[in-house]
Design a protein that fits this description.
Layout: H1 3-20, H2 32-42, H3 47-60, H4 64-68, H5 72-78, H6 85-103, H7 116-124, H8 131-141, H9 151-159, H10 165-170, H11 176-179, H12 182-201, H13 206-215, H14 219-285
Helix pairs in contact: 1-13, 2-3, 2-6, 2-8, 5-6, 9-12, 12-13
Length: about 290
């Protein structure tokens, strides 16, 4: 797709978002660390559930260091209302650990005064950092222009034709920040998040389906085909893993049988030698 056509489609997307969804309340002022942690919960999750999750963490734990040393299982239990509490808990714990190892502190607000590129580079270097969380930190915490797009939002970009399969797999939408000005970036991201997570929670969501069609005719059908393809892929992966487990089991059983056979042969050989020594001893005594 040409850059011009993509920009036109993104503009159409913005118009459709404003038509079908309400602009969310402004993001509250937070320390930079909390923007990062909130993003860990918001990724592929409705904003109200992410708000609830952050509030529960702040209520149930003394400080963020206590959260850092808590197990993923325990954190997932606290975040049970989220669509995928295990993933959210793993992201949260991993980011907290990475931040602690990088800064030996949870007070990150000094980074707001640093050069944006240098501050971003420190977060980019964290192996546990996801593109969505990084973009959210840049947009909300550091005042830069980077629009957070998670898995659910990328599906919308894919089925509307804004992103190709290769681009979606790579987790990028070329030209997005050029087509959406910085002054509209926060609003666009908040609006985009609504139909994306709505379809993730319920692929038949009527408002989200209508929204898709208003962006690009046939997008709803594209989504159905994508979902069917995804289900088939999941089945293939499960079947392959089952085959691999069966093959590994058979291999282990074969190795165990060979080992048992080898041990048996050694025992027989030892027994034969022992019998030979007894016979020889008896002959000598005679």
């Amino acid at each position: 797709m040409s850059a011009t056509n993509r920009a036109k489609l993104i503009t159409k997307l913005q118009t459709a978002l404003k038509k079908h969804y309400d602009v969310a309340p402004a993001t509250p002022s937070r320390p930079l660390l909390e923007h990062a942690l909130y993003a860990c919960l918001l990724e592929d999750c409705p904003a109200d559930l992410a708000d609830e999750g952050l509030a529960k963490l702040e209520q149930d734990y003394f400080d963020w260091n206590e959260v850092r040393v808590t197990t993923v299982t325990e954190l997932a239990a606290v975040l049970s209302s989220l669509p995928d509490p295990n993933k959210a808990a793993q992201r949260l714990k991993s980011i907290l650990q990475a931040i602690f190892e990088e800064f030996y502190s949870f007070d990150l607000d000094h980074l707001k005064k640093e050069n944006l590129g240098k501050a971003v580079a420190k977060f980019e270097g964290m192996s546990s950092m996801t593109p969505f969380v990084l973009s959210y930190i840049i947009q909300h915490g550091l005042g830069g222009h980077s629009i957070p797009i998670d898995y659910s939002a990328m599906v919308v970009m894919l089925v509307t034709g804004i992103a190709s399969q290769a681009e979606a797999s790579d987790g990028r939408v070329p030209g997005l920040e050029r087509a959406v000005p910085k002054s509209k970036g926060v609003e666009f991201a908040a609006l985009m998040h609504q139909p994306a997570v709505a379809l993730l929670m319920d692929p038949k969501d009527k408002t989200a389906r209508t929204f898709l069609e208003s962006v690009a005719k046939g997008s709803s059908k594209e989504l159905d085909e994508w979902l069917t393809s995804k289900e088939a892929a999941i089945k293939r992966v499960k079947a392959r893993k089952k085959e691999e487990r069966e093959a590994a089991k058979q291999e282990a059983e074969a190795e165990a049988a060979e080992e048992a056979e080898a041990k048996s042969a050694v025992l027989v050989k030892r027994s034969a030698k022992k019998g030979s020594r007894v016979t020889k001893s008896s002959v000598q005594q005679k």
